[in-house]
Amino acid sequence: MAGNTFGTLFRYTTWGESHGPAIGVVVDGVPPGLALDEADIQTWLDKRRPGSSRFTTQRREADQVKILSGTFEGKTTGTPISLMIENTDVRSKDYDAIEDAFRPGHADYTYFKKYGIRDHRGGGRASARETAARVAASGIARKILGESIAIRGALVQIGPHKVAPARWDWDAVAANPFFCPDPVMAKEWESYLDAIRKSGNSVGAVIQIEAEGVPAGLGEPVYDRLDADLAKALMSINAAKGVEIGAGFEAAALLGDANADEMRMENGNATFLSNHAGGVLGGIATGQPIVARFAVKPTSSIAIPRKSVDRSGSDVDIATKGRHDPCVGIRAVPVGEAMMANVLADHLLRHKAQCG
Fold first, then answer.
1. Is-contact 221 344, C-beta < 8 A?
2. CA-CA distance, 281 to 271, in Å (whole number)?
3. Which of 208, 189, 182, 186 is nearest to 295 (CA)?
4. Residue 323 phi/psi, 5° resolution?
5. What is the pLDDT of residues 329-343, one digit of tens each?
6. What is the pLDDT of residue 52?
7. 265-304: pLDDT as tens digits
8. Would you call the peptide bond into 25 cis, given omega within 30 degrees of 0 as the criterion?
């Protein structure tokens, strides 16, 4: 599986399965001499950790990270950094009933067709549990980026219910269990998701990620464009089905004079009067905030019976047991932030290598 590795200079490989003894990541290309300890990584894992509210899976994982290599006396050595997170709250018996059956909407069928074998316990390698390793890697990426680049994310839509731009408040994101920037909509989501959860169903969502302080010039045209790499990074997140940069699909409804971000000089610097481009032109950062959104589908593991087939070729009905998110989009917010950090760290190192 060559696809387990992401990045060019800031390059990491994740490993492990949902119900194995541990998951982890090996990060290569990290400059030596950076101050790094487990607390620098743990703070981001805590943000993603399951079981944080009744609106996410009740699997209780501590997600305690261990640095196994690549640091000495609190600083990076320039050698590969290996991180491990033990799985401590597995209930593999919940998946005994689907050992030979393929859950609709999951990767069960495609993994089996590709490899001829699959780990049915929680989805194995295809589980969203893998994203904890990406988030761990992002703790190192943020050390490379430094404090001048700020990355933040928000949940902007659950099902048909969208936040109101007029009520957008970044300070509200940390004050509710949804990472929602709209306090009014956060209250509405509570009752809406409670009903979804109690019915045994699930719902999709849209997440917005922004990065401020990104210096102009990052990006490697033509095939490693900053927006192209970011789109790939976000599309690689479990359940992601679409990515937008800037105005995204709404740009198709705009006229050219409205879509083009006009410019003026201000205090000796070129400034933009709008940001329909989402901070990227020609695959290169403009210096404006990088703005991206991605949509995730409803959680495929639901208690409502669905039609499927098994390995013997028989028709079956499946109702998935276990502990699952009624809306996987909630915990996708810190994962989206992590992938933004990982992409930007890679491009920052690549830019310095070529342009100084």
1. no
2. 14
3. 208
4. -115, 115
5. 999 999 999 999 999
6. 64
7. 999 999 999 999 999 999 999 999 999 999 999 999 888 9
8. no
pTM tops 0.70: yes
**Which helix (H) or strand (E) segment is 14 a member of?**
strand 11-16
Using CA atoms, how far apart are residues 245 and 231, in angstroms rounded to an integer?
8
Distance CA 178, CA 192 (A): 12
Q: Give the strand pairing for 11-16 and 5-6.
A: antiparallel
Distance CA(351)–CA(356), nearest Å, equals 7
Q: Which residue has the higher pLDDT, 20 or 153?
A: 153
Condensed to tens digits (0 to 9), the pLDDT of residues 208-230 reads: 999 999 999 999 999 999 999 99
Are 33 and 75 spatial neighbours (Cβ–Cβ below 8 Å)? Answer: yes
Residue 215, beta-bridge partner list = none
Nearest to 105, CA basis, from 251, 265, 308, 348: 308
DSSP 309-336: EBTTS-EEEE---S---S-THHHHHHHH
**The token pair that represents 141 in the structure block:** 């990426």
Is 51 exposed, middle or buried (CB count within 10 Å of its CB: 0-12, 13-18, 19+)?
middle
For the CA atoms of 133, 134, 135, 138, what is the dihedral angle to 10 degrees? 120
Q: Output the pLDDT for position 310.
A: 94
Given this model, what pLDDT does residue 301 score?
Answer: 86
State how far the Cα of 338 lies from the Cα of 135, in Å rounded to an integer.
5
Helix axes 329-355, 226-235, angle to 10 degrees: 150
| 83's tokens | 């991180």
Q: Which of 134, 123, 140, 120 is nearest to 24 (CA)?
A: 134
Place of tokens 């959680």: 299
* Buried/exposed 88-124: b ≥16 CB within 10 Å, e otherwise: eebeeebbeebeebbbbbbbbbebeeeeeebbbbbbb
